């Protein structure tokens, strides 16, 4: 399993607010190389499967509604220590608790609408990359 890759989504709120460019700039400036990239929209079934680990949580319905309401940008990112370094770059789940200069501090509105996703392990980075991309779309 590769340990130098992670998976991200710029969530619907980021696309709606015109923040694709600024967020991609933050990501590449931090040393991440783009290995795969596309604008796409998740179906309800996609979002339920992608976030299945949160199925029993009270916010699950709201999360699926949010993640399917418009297009997202999906990307595979490459950098040494990618998973951990990307989680540091995006900041805490709740933007109110996110460190200064992090993507969520800069661009997220709330814990529910928090601008970006970042994989939480190498194993999930691989699973999530394959969920969104065919092999020939990853470089
Ligand atoms: P992500 O998996 O999207 O990178 P995360 O790992 O920081 O986020 P998780 O605990 O995996 O956080 O939660 C997944 C997503 O569910 C969050 O990013 C957010 O959109 C939503 N969420 C989490 N907690 C809450 C909450 N208390 N209320 C509303 N939505 C929430
Ligand atoms: Mg998570």
Could you walk me through the main structural features you see in this protein, from its secondary elements to its overall organization?
It is a single chain. This protein is of the alpha+beta class and 139 residues long. The chain has one domain: Nucleoside diphosphate kinase-like domain (Alpha-Beta Plaits), CATH 3.30.70. It is built from 7 helices and 4 strands; from the N terminus they run βααβααβααβα. Strands 2-3-1-4 form a 4-stranded antiparallel beta sheet. It is globular and about 35 Å long. The two termini are 16 Å apart. The relative contact order is 0.26. The mean pLDDT is 97. It binds adenosine-5'-triphosphate and magnesium ion.
Draw up the topology in text.
Blueprint: E1 5-10, H1 12-16, H2 20-29, E2 33-40, H3 44-50, H4 60-68, E3 72-78, H5 82-90, H6 103-107, E4 116-118, H7 122-132
Antiparallel strand pairs: 1-3, 1-4, 2-3
The structure holds adenosine-5'-triphosphate and magnesium ion.
Features:
single chain; 139 residues; alpha+beta; Alpha-Beta Plaits; 4 strands; binds adenosine-5'-triphosphate; binds magnesium ion
In short:
With 139 residues, the chain is α+β, with helices and mostly antiparallel strands. 40% of the residues lie in helices and 17% in strands. The protein binds adenosine-5'-triphosphate and magnesium ion.
Ends: how far apart? Answer: 16 Å
Helix content: 40-55%
CATH C-level class is Alpha Beta
* Major sheet strand order: 2-3-1-4
What is the CATH architecture descriptor? 2-Layer Sandwich
Mean pLDDT: 97
Structural class: alpha+beta
Give a quick account of the main beta sheet: strands, pairing sense, barrel closure: 4 strands, antiparallel
Detail the poorly predicted runs: none
| Cα-based radius of gyration, to the nearest Å | 14 Å
Shape: globular
